[in-house]
Amino acid sequence: MRLPGQLHMTSEGLSLLLEVVAVFVLAWWGFGVGDNAVVHVILGVGAPLAAMALWGAFAAPKAKIKAPLPVVLLVKLIVFGAAALAFYALDQVAVAVIYAAIAILSIVLAALDSDAAYSNGDA
């Protein structure tokens, strides 16, 4: 099943927005955690890069690896879950809860959208 046009585009846009926020909050968290500059840089750069690499390989509409839907949804859950946990670790509890709720909605929409089921454009 493919979601109707406008809902499909809304789902894709929501997923992109959540991904951008995830990269931002993982950097914010990474630069603040630990006791020395080396740890700050490694985590502040490494955490968002890891999220982007994972997303680009499996969850992006033009992902490098054509993964089945459960893998795509798992990657989204990992990236969005890490972002929600980062908000929580930054004492942004309300934001973490709201972000997690929106992320769950996005993952459910992706699960219902066979085009977003990431046959990577081959649907």
User: N- to C-terminal separation?
Assistant: 10 Å
**Count, helices:** 4
Report the sheet with the most strands, covering strand number, pairing sense and barrel closure.
none
Radius of gyration: 15 Å
> Structural class from helices and strands?
mainly alpha
Strand content: under 5%
Oligomer: single chain
The helix content is: over 70%
Give the overall average pLDDT.
89
Shape: globular
Return the string of H and E elements.
HHHH
Uncertain segments: 116-123
Q: Count of DSSP E strands?
A: 0
Observed structural traits:
123 residues; mainly alpha; 75% helix; globular; disordered C terminus
Written overview of the protein:
Helix 1 runs antiparallel to helix 4 and helix 2 (37-59) packs antiparallel against helix 3 (69-89). By secondary structure, the chain is mostly helical. The protein is built from 4 helices and no strands.
Brief overview, please?
The protein is mostly helical and 123 residues long.
Question: How are the elements arranged and paired?
Answer:
Blueprint: H1 5-32, H2 37-59, H3 69-89, H4 93-112
Helix pairs in contact: 1-2, 1-3, 1-4, 2-3, 3-4
